[in-house]
Amino acid sequence: MTKKQFTLKYFLHRYFIKAMGSMAQGLFASLLIGTIFTALGMIPKLEVLKNVGGFAQAMAGPAMAVAIAWSLEAHPLVIFSAAAVGNAAYVLGDAGGPLAVFFIAIISVEIGMLVSKKTKVDIIVTPFITVLVGGLLSIFAAPKIGVAVGYISKFIGWASIQTPLVMGILVSVVIGICLTLPVSSAAICKVLILTGNVAAGGSEGLAIAGAAAVAGCCAQMVGFAVISFRENGWGGLLSQGIGTSMLQMPNIIRHPQIWIAPTLASAITGPLAVCVFGLKMYGDAINSGMGTCGFLGPVGMLLGWISPDSGFTGKIETLQIAGLVLICFVLPAVLSLMINEVLRKIGLVKDGYMKLED
To answer: How far is CA 129 from CA 15, 32, 122, 132, 256, in A?
Structure first.
């Protein structure tokens, strides 16, 4: 490697495009696919899939760290050692787990590569150094990253007690953004108990905030899936629409303006969800931050309405069913397309800006 390669552009591409792109795939192959299996386990006679989903979800940290190490072209022993680092960073990072994994895995992998294949006892030295660095960083730094992400939770908590219109905009936009960032929007919603299920600690106000969160997450996922269809086709539509919009993070770093359409769409669908359609989340709070990943956002809301144990006492109106479909699927697609076309016409967004890396 020549000195010319060690530029700011090189490091930005290496860490925030290659590593983050692979991390998103690791997240999908563990936490998100596990969540989908868990949802399928709700179907009678398929309960065993809940266990399958649980095993996959438990591997979120290791999967992301290994994906990052692989993207950095690390040696095998460094890649394998990254699994332990990822687990520690994810668990200790709490709601900031994915973000903690991102930074700590990169540092530990790069330091591990400094000693990898440099000694005759590589099988001991390489994993020892990689895990030591990653473990210590996880113990001392990951909780602080979790605390930093906790400020987002405090803001959402404040926003949830504002007027429905203001709350709908703020909660929808912020939780939607967290869904696309390497931050656990689902964990934030779980901590804040964004559900109306009183038995779970929820309330009527939190049920409304949960619905706004669902709207924001769906806007990000469906929005990116639709506006990037010309670049990514059906594969991209499905991987983002029912997988994760985090796949677009490397492209957002290159071209931040591509985030405008889905974010503006969420600012519209959030207040519509709570002020016009009267949507409320009575399902599991974690579903408020899942969006259309495995359809868990809308499915969680629907299950909350029909479950006898959710605490929902209202009557399911036709307006609510129509609103659920419009807010979660139709409006995010239409609004994002319209806004993105305007951005294309004024030259802010161009072909190829949202192409997903293979």
So the answer is: 21, 30, 10, 5, 36
- 179 touches 289 (CB < 8 A): yes
Domain ranges across the chain: 3-145, 160-345
| H-run or E-run covering 324 | helix 318-325
Phi-psi region at 193: left, alpha or beta (left = phi > 0; alpha = psi -120 to 50): left
42: which 2 tokens? 């709700």
The half-sphere exposure of 247 on its side-chain side, counting CA atoms within 13 A, is: 29
Helix (H) or strand (E) holding 276: none
Q: Give the pLDDT of residue 182.
A: 85
Count Cβ atoms below 10 Å from residue 123 Cβ, excluding itself: 10
Is 150 buried (19+), middle (13-18) or exposed (0-12) by CB count in 10 A? middle
Distance CA 149, CA 197 (A): 25
* Predicted confidence (pLDDT) per residue in 184-234, tens digit: 788 888 888 899 988 888 888 899 999 999 999 999 999 999 999 999 999
pLDDT of residue 2: 46
For 102-144, give the DSSP string.
HHHHHHHHHHHHHHTTSSTTHHHHHHHHHHHHHHHHHHHTHHH
Exposure b/e, 166-199, CB count within 10 A at least 16 = b: ebbbbbbbbbbbbbbbbbbbbbbbbbbbbbbbee
Q: For residue 192, which phi and psi values (nearest 5 degrees)?
A: -80, -5
4: which 2 tokens? 């010319």
What pLDDT was estimated at residue 144?
Answer: 95
Q: Which residues of the chain have pLDDT under 70?
A: 1-5, 358
What's the CA gap between 182 and 195, in Å, rounded?
Answer: 23
C-alpha–C-alpha distance, residues 223 and 340, integer Å? 9
Give the integer Cα–Cα distance in Å for 357 and 85.
25
